[in-house]
Design goal:
The chain is an alpha/beta fold. The chain is 41% helix and 16% strand.
Length: 237
């Protein structure tokens, strides 16, 4: 089982980076005032969401099993309350969105005593990422890595198949669509505990396919860490 053990050295390093990150965010806030990723009201430089929006979010409490994943944790239930923040994240119009979700995921890591050697964000097909200009999961992974001091990599797991948009498919079609879609680098993955990070999970097909590739590459453990999970009934994004 993956376990997260706090040591004196880790706590000291974590405190140092926490202070450094806060100083950086404080300075940036003077130039680009921080906004809530959900309602876009101004918030403090070290806030994730405004208090009003955050109080409306529903924490994801259900225990579910995704095939090929050893563990599954989601921060929020995906619903109408959190949807604006997810759209902000996907559209890249809110600089605070990756930080906001990463901060919540970091709390999940600590509260569930999750340890990992590497964070692998769910990748996009190269052409799709080039057209968009970024992969939102990479942005979250970068922030989460800075908070947790767990290394992240955008090359350990890549997408090699130009698949159809998942939102256009039903559950069975999603699974078929993702067969052979991912490739993992065993030189990076083998023997490591992996956090597989994604923004939204609906049917779990993406996580199932990606985690299978990670396991085939020799991953010792795969823990799916998700910003938002739909509540039982798959929804199109």
């Amino acid at each position: 089982m993956c376990c997260y053990q706090h040591t004196g050295g880790f706590q000291s390093a974590a405190l140092f980076f926490h202070v450094a990150m806060n100083i950086k965010r404080f300075i940036l806030d003077l130039i680009y005032p921080t906004r809530c990723p959900c309602c876009h009201d101004f918030i403090r430089y070290n806030q994730d969401f405004c208090d009003k929006c955050k109080s409306d979010f529903t924490a994801f409490r259900k225990k579910i099993k995704i095939e090929n994943c050893d563990f599954f944790y989601s921060l929020y239930v995906y619903d109408d309350k959190i949807r604006p923040a997810v759209i902000t994240l996907k559209n890249g119009v809110g600089g605070n969105a990756p930080y906001a979700f990463a901060a919540g995921l970091y709390e999940l890591i600590k509260s569930n005593e999750i340890s990992a050697d590497l964070i692998c964000p769910v990748p996009m097909f190269r052409n799709d990422e080039n057209m968009r200009g970024y992969n939102q999961c990479n942005l979250i992974a970068k922030e989460l890595s800075a908070m947790s001091k767990i290394t992240w990599s955008k090359n350990a797991l890549i997408k090699i198949k130009n698949t159809k948009p998942q939102k256009e498919l039903n559950a069975a079609e999603r699974a078929e669509n993702l067969k052979g879609a991912f490739s993992a680098d065993s030189a990076i993955i083998k023997g490591k505990k992996i956090i597989l990070l994604d923004d939204v999970c609906t049917t779990g097909s993406t996580l199932k396919a990606a985690s299978l590739e990670l396991k085939n590459a020799g991953a010792d453990c795969v823990c799916a860490l998700i910003c938002c999970k739909t509540d039982d009934i798959p929804q199109n994004l």
